[in-house]
Design goal:
- The chain folds into two domains: 6-225, Rossmann fold (3-Layer(aba) Sandwich); 238-358, RNA polymerase II/Efflux pump adaptor protein, barrel-sandwich hybrid domain (OB fold (Dihydrolipoamide Acetyltransferase, E2P), Beta Barrel).
- 24% of the residues lie in helices and 36% in strands.
- The protein is built from nine helices and 20 strands.
- It has helices at residues 44-52, 94-103, 109-122, 138-150, 168-185, 196-202, 220-225, 230-235, 331-334; strands at 6-15, 18-28, 33-37, 59-64, 67-68, 81-83, 156-160, 188-193, 205-210, 213-218, 239-250, 253-258, 261-266, 276-282, 287-289, 298-309, 312-318, 324-330, 344-348, 354-358.
- The strands form four sheets. Strands 6-7-8-3-9-10 form a six-stranded mixed beta sheet, with helices on both faces.
- Helix 2 packs across helix 3 (109-122) and helix 2 packs parallel to helix 4.
- The longest helix is centred in the middle third of the chain and has 18 residues, at 168-185.
- Bound molecules: adenosine-5'-triphosphate (ATP).
- The site of adenosine-5'-triphosphate has 12 residues, from strand 2 and helix 1.
Length: 360
Amino acid sequence: MPEPLLVLDGIVKRYDDHTAVHRLDLDIAAGEFIALMGPSGCGKTTTLRMIAGLETPSEGEIRLRGRRMNEVKPWERDTPLVWQSLALFPFMSVLKNVEFGLKMRDVVGPERTRRAMSWLERLGIAKYRDRKIDQLSGGERQRVALARALVTEPEILLLDEPLSALDAHLVIRMQAELKQLQQQLGITFCYVTHSQSEAFAMADRVAIMAEGRLQQVGPPREVYRAPANRFVAEFVGANNILSGRIVSLAKGLAAVDTPFGTLQAKADQACQAGDPVAVVVSADRVTVSDGKAEGENALAGTVISEEFVGAFVTLHVDIGEDKSFRAQLQQHALEPLGAVRGKRLTLRWKPEHTVILKNK
Ligand code: ATP
């Protein structure tokens, strides 16, 4: 099988006595949109900078089409980086900014202008060709930065939180534009973000990092529905995590003894009776009623608060033992319950909608 386009093979990055990235293994396929995500300081930017050649790995190897890249200078790589501050030249026109990348590659005169103009047209900013950068809006600047990176027709475009300086409305529009552009061009995008919604909206796969280590890599749906460990379950989505111990196993289900009673959970990992585990239930898998908390996976609780997210509402429910449980429901499903603060409700979910995590 041919090697993937980009391979990060056991890369480590140390700064003095601090290890920012620990033995990271990641393969990125040609044409893929991959998002590196994780909390602040987890090593996302350091990883991207190593791919761009702005940092050298302390250990391990980066290969692009099978070629070792560790010692290749950034300007000799085919991996431009677009970042939040965009680093455009304010004193140059839009056209000159975009031509800059080609100038560095000795593309001359009319050919340079022709190629730059074709990218300005593609990104819908050709009419601003003679404007200075500070005469543009945030979204227009963003497109100039993209045009400047894409004009050299790179194999991989690296993007470091490129939308974080834009307002929320524009972020949503630019996400759709970026995804469309990536699909049309077939270029590999490697995108760093701390935002789950941004990563999930655009990426084919997300790679989640914490404290310099890769936690899980997979399509957004898989990472959302089947978090690999507690960190991912807490970082992604709106998961409820209940700790307990397996008391018995039968027909692919585990009975888990918890401070909230015995819960039934899907046992798709190699589990044994006696194992300490966490049962993960996504907030959008929970139903709410005002009936009695009887039968399988039914917990009684008291409404603490509700949080509006447009058509959806997240209910925060006190289930005792100092634990707040979240249920995400459509607004119209909640209305008949009159779920005001202090109201007693019953929360329910199906065993097949749970994930069991073994406590390490
Ligand atoms: P953010 O979302 O805040 O940008 P990040 O996940 O991109 O965070 P990195 O910038 O990769 O994080 O930093 C990872 C760790 O390495 C941090 O603890 C940071 O302080 C440290 N670090 C980064 N660059 C250097 C440097 N040049 N010298 C020393 N430590 C560094």
